[in-house]
Design goal:
Length: 464
């Protein structure tokens, strides 16, 4: 399989450290608010990667954190804690906020058919691990204490900017505002491993540590959880593109300094979903979530389908027009599939041909839209029997996961509907479009929507 590696900035042959097994880590959500559909695009991207690896025969073990402490307002290490803002906004405790939004997150996560990671760990549950790592980083001279906090000294690592390919100066300029705000740092780009109460007031969640009562920085959470649960060598670590700097850059610096060797081979990053105003955000205005889309009558899997239509490394624009179109296309696709009769028996030659094409598309850096083209070609191919088609579609849907094969809901008055469909077909043949339309509308009034495909007409029960 070929996969783009942010670390080397090229598409490479993916090789796992242990044959047949993949250890994969995904940066989890910050649970101070709802996860918007942009966040969900990122998790769909990770899900497609996991499902593709599994399709290729790998056994994947995947871990994810829940950031319930320590992710600050902006990505430099100053500002207020986002969780703190939420507790003030909602008059709840930090743990209540975290629990509520964690549940909401996983509801949406499952609505778009994402597989649950094998290991899910809230950051607040792993404080001992961070303390262990920070202690060693201090002992080995990678970290220093200043003003009550502990910082990582980025000048102590050889290639701090290896993941970003940015000119060092540009990023330092970007971080320069910190100089005024945080005079404790030796270098502007140093980052906090542990905060004490000296700098941030009103922190509800605090733990004893060798450096005083306080709380961990955001970056140490993911390093700690990943190393503790997946070990010292990781195959794939990923997140959204905004995680490349500073989050993943800092994770590499502290993890490799702690371990004394290379940590992760592949860095996987998903491009953003944008709305028409630009970047989606959790913090401003109404938050568009998968559940909100569902309340508006959309099938959450139409959103997943929309994501599959574009490459994970390309920005994707969210508009309701795009979503409507995705929903209509998915509906049509399911209807076409529902009309396939499972005739014949498995035709090995056709199965191999289409399965190989499907694998080839996904193995080409997860080209999901080409994989969909393979599906459409299969549907059109009159040489392939129904049994083989359905078998392939069932397998493809292990990766797409958009419920391509749906049990059709049968209407009580199916016979009447079928005879009206027949009558409408006759009317269309006779170019009596008025009658054809009136039949369609008559059924619509009864909560039955007709769907025309090249293979014929089916119906769908709709809630009126
Ligand atoms: P957060 O909860 O803010 O930590 O974000 C969770 C994940 O969503 C992170 O890995 C981000 O990189 C990713 N993310 C944030 N905004 C977007 C967006 N607009 N589109 C895609 N992914 C995003
Ligand atoms: Zn992370």
């Amino acid at each position: 399989m070929k996969l783009y590696n942010t670390l080397t900035r090229q598409v490479e042959d993916f090789r796992s450290i242990e044959e047949g097994k993949v250890k994969m880590y995904t940066c989890g959500p910050t649970v101070y608010h709802y996860a918007h559909i942009g966040n969900m695009r990122n998790y769909i991207g990770h899900d497609i990667l996991q499902r593709t690896l599994e399709y290729l025969g790998y056994q994947v073990t995947r871990a994810m954190n829940i950031t319930d402490v320590g992710h600050l307002t902006n990505d430099s290490d100053d500002g207020e804690d986002k969780m703190l803002i939420a507790t003030q906004r909602e008059h709840k405790t930090a743990m209540e906020i975290a629990e509520y939004y964690t549940n909401e997150f996983f509801k949406d996560f499952e609505k778009v058919n994402n597989k649950m990671p094998d290991i899910i760990k809230p950051a607040t549950g792993e404080i001992d691990m961070y303390i262990k790592m920070i202690t060693k980083l201090l002992e080995d001279g990678y970290a220093y204490q200043a003003g009550g906090n502990v910082y990582f000294d980025i000048t102590k690592v050889k290639n701090y900017y290896q993941l970003t390919n940015h000119v060092q100066d540009e990023l330092v300029v970007g971080a320069r505002e910190d100089v005024e705000e945080d005079v404790n740092k030796r270098n502007p780009a140093d980052f906090a491993l542990w905060f004490t109460t000296s700098k941030f007031e009103h922190q509800e969640l605090q733990w004893d540590s060798p450096w005083g009562k306080g709380y961990p920085g955001w970056h140490i959470e993911c390093s700690g959880i990943s190393i503790k649960y997946l070990g010292e060598h990781l195959d794939i670590h990923g997140g959204g593109v905004d995680n490349i700097f500073p989050h993943h850059t800092n994770e590499i610096a502290q993890s490799e300094s702690y371990l004394g060797h290379k940590w992760c081979n592949f860095w996987f990053h998903n491009e953003h979903l944008n709305d028409e105003s630009g970047k989606m955000s959790k913090s401003n205005g109404a938050i568009l979530t998968v559940s909100v889309l569902e309340e508006q009558g959309y099938d959450p899997l139409a959103f997943r389908f929309m994501c599959l239509g574009s490459h994970y490394r390309k920005q994707l624009l969210f508009t309701f027009d795009n979503l409507n179109q995705a929903e209509q296309t998915l509906d049509k696709l399911r209807n076409k599939i529902s009309l396939i009769e499972p005739s014949g028996e498995l035709d090995d030659g056709s199965f191999k041909e289409y399965n190989n094409r499907f694998i080839e598309a996904l193995s080409n850096d997860l080209n999901t839209s080409n994989a969909l083209t393979v599906l459409y070609d299969l549907l059109k191919d009159e040489q392939v029997n129904g049994y083989t088609k359905l078998d392939l579609i069932r397998k493809f849907d292990k990766v797409f996961a958009v419920n391509l094969i749906v049990e059709k809901e049968t209407a009580e008055n199916e016979e009447e509907i079928l005879s009206l469909i027949e009558k409408r077909n006759e009317a269309k043949k006779n170019k009596d479009y008025e009658l054809a339309d009136s039949i369609r509308n008559e059924l619509l009034d009864k909560g039955i929507e007709l769907i025309d495909t090249r293979e014929g007409t089916t119906y769908k029960i709709i809630n009126s």
